[in-house]
Amino acid sequence: MRDSLPVFSSKEFLIFCFFLAISATFWFLSTLNDTYEKEYPLRVEITDIPHNVVITEPLPDTIRVVLRDKGYSLLEYAFNNTLRPIHLHFAHYAKAGGKGSITQNDIQKILKLRTLETTSITAVKSDRWDFYYSYGEMKKVPIVVEGQLLPAPNYFVTRTVLTPDSASVYAATSALDTIKAVYTEPQNIVDIKESATHHVALQKITGARIEPSTVRMSLIAEQMTEVTVSVPIKPVNVPEGVMLKTFPARVDVKVTVSLSSASQIKPELFNVVADYNDLSANPSEKLKVKIMVQPRGIVRAALKTNKVDYILENF
Questions:
Q1: Cα 12 to chain center, whole Å?
Q2: What is the per-residue pLDDT across 226-263, written as a single tens digit (0 to 9) for each?
Q3: What is d(CA 285, CA 308) in angstroms, rounded to the nearest whole number?
Q4: Cα separation of 189 and 209, whole Å?
């Protein structure tokens, strides 16, 4: 029975574990007595902001500090509240022109009061040291889609709808005067075959707060088709006493349009003209015709022929 007990229940193994624990403890204490550098995150917040002030671009909410000291001191910082958030009084750091800033020295001075005398602050790191504010100045500007929206072959995007289609921009007056529009983050949507909705972020503007920060972009896509309509040619700029006749009197217009709108394409929606002034400027055996008016919403319209025969008659 005794022989069947695991080896770790033997007296020798227990003595081994005891001395191993003592050795580990001494090693750990010796390690803590060495000097190290360690990076800690430190929260920063602007406080005591007046009621009429809007922070349009805050400081980064976290900066990083690198401390150098004995291991046991650095371990203490990890478990007590010495490195609690730093609160910076707005009035002390705000400057004219809607901009404020802090410095590495500002943070180091505050940390010196919170850390041990043996601790060295070797680095203070932040993505930015500036913040921006305004006194409630705001204006609405249109939102513009930036990037490419490419339909698949034989499809096209009939509409791009942004909801909302404008944004409120808060910034100092000098900055607002230069902001004419807000742009989406660059889009790269290709091979569009069906309508879809995307949530897209708006590009940030330094020193400004933009509301909302994202918008809903609806792409209305339809399949294309081609239809042909026969449109009468209208002579224009013909002087009195002269009659201009074209042969043929009508011309075919080839129209690329969405499948759902094809039935709505009628000849009377077009205005195809033959201009007498073209003859006086450039006499020719053929007279040019051109589309002057075409319905909205079509992709393209083209004449099957852009020159016709004609005769002039005096009466």
A1: 68
A2: 999 999 999 999 998 899 999 999 999 999 998 888 88
A3: 9
A4: 27
The 10s digit of each residue's pLDDT in 261-281 is 888 999 999 999 999 998 877
pTM of the model: 0.63
- For 241-279, b where at least 16 C-beta lie within 10 A, e where not — what string? eeebebeeeebebebbbbeebeeebeeebbebbbbbebb
How many angstroms separate the CA atoms of 251 and 307, rounded? 10
Q: Tell me the two tokens of residue 273.
A: 């003209």
> Do the beta carbons of residue 62 and residue 104 sit within 8 Å?
no
Q: Is 44 helix (H, G, I), strand (E, B) or coil?
A: strand
d(CA 47, CA 89): 5
Which of 158, 222, 210 is closest to 184 using CA atoms?
Answer: 210
Instruction: Identify the residue whose tokens are 């450039």.
Output: 282
First vs last Cα of the chain: how many Å apart?
Answer: 135
**63: buried, middle or exposed (CB in 10 Å: 19+, 13-18, 0-12)?**
buried
Spatial separation of the C-alpha atoms in residues 288 and 265, rounded to whole Å: 24
Nearest CA to 60 out of 109, 129, 132 is that of 129
Q: How many helices (H) and strands (E) does the chain have?
A: 6, 23
Residue appearing with tokens 């294309």: 224
- At residue 22, the 3 state secondary structure works out as helix
- Judged by DSSP in three states, 113 sits in coil
